[in-house]
Design brief:
The protein is α+β, with helices and mostly antiparallel strands and 278 residues long. The protein is 24% helix and 19% strand. The protein is elongated. Bound molecules: zinc ion (ZN). Residues 238, 240-241, 243, 258, 260-261 line the site of zinc ion.
Length: 278
């Protein structure tokens, strides 16, 4: 799933190409595309795109009178629509501009979770953005420590909780735990101020490294192209210590980690969510 750095760089690319362009019409292409009934999206027709931005993992198309909030989820992509065909493959929604160009939201796969919210007024105070925590790369150690204490859970899960930190997904959570030399299963209720400080720095470093990679590209990277030490590298040697990167497998994803760097050599097994009980 695209995370903070991928979405940020993509917003910057589209902003450079489309800001100022006048929206002729917004066209939902699937029944699940538009998540809001009011305001009518037609209110934005005839208005220029003020800017393309980002909050958490959401793309924002600010048309002044309203903002389109777009979530790509796992397989969604927002790209320049060269063909503008009547029934585009995997099409979710389309923005057609008065200069003849268009942007197309697609979603690969069968999940049908990518979507668009139209929001009038301040989008920060309304669904879906109102539930988001602070931007992950801006969070201070004190805020993170408060979250540790208020929400005792596994570190990997807390990092991915968008209400606590906005923008981190599985890849960044894997990489942050590795750089912080903390187990992904570490209980946040037992972590203190030292660990909060230890986690904040890798969040910023991982976000900034990925941003640099993404900003050098013409389009959003695929997950295999993103930098990292452990994510998606189970079986490989850890670049820090040479131990073999391991993973804990879930039905839909894996947590990757290095035993020597993160768990004192202990292999992790998940006893709380056995797949045999489902
Ligand atoms: Zn290691």
């Amino acid at each position: 799933m695209p995370e903070l750095p991928e979405v940020q760089a993509h917003a910057e690319r589209l902003d450079a190409a489309f800001s100022g362009a006048v929206l002729e019409r917004f066209v939902p292409l699937s029944f699940t595309a538009l998540k809001t009934a009011v305001p009518p999206t037609g209110d934005a027709h005839g208005h220029p795109l003020v800017f393309m931005g980002r909050r958490g993992k959401y793309l924002l198309l600010d048309l002044g009178v309203l903002t389109f909030v777009v979530h790509l989820m796992q397989g969604g992509r927002l790209r320049v629509d060269e063909k503008q065909s009547a029934k585009p493959r995997n099409g979710v929604a389309r923005w057609v501009f008065a200069d003849g160009r268009a942007l197309l939201l697609t979603e690969a796969g069968t999940e049908r979770k990518a979507g668009v919210w139209a929001v009038a007024g301040d989008p920060e105070t309304q669904a879906p953005l109102d539930r988001l925590g602070p931007e992950a790369d801006l969070v201070e150690p004190g805020t993170l420590l408060e979250a540790f204490r208020a929400t005792p859970m596994r570190l990997h899960g807390l990092l991915r909780d968008q209400r606590i930190l906005a923008g981190v997904g599985r890849r960044l959570a894997n990489e942050v735990c590795h750089r912080a030399c903390l187990s992904p299963f570490a209980s946040t209720g037992k972590l203190g101020a030292a660990e909060a400080g230890t986690v904040v720095e890798p969040i910023r470093a991982c976000v900034n490294e990925s941003l640099a990679v993404e900003r050098g590209r013409d389009d959003m990277s695929s997950s295999a192209e993103r930098p990292g030490n452990v994510h998606g590298r189970a079986g490989d040697a850890c670049p820090v210590c040479g131990d073999t990167v391991r993973s804990v497998e879930y039905r839909a994803y894996r947590i990757d980690y290095c035993p020597t760097c993160q768990t004192g050599g202990k292999l992790l097994a998940d006893n709380t969510t056995s797949k045999f009980l489902r």
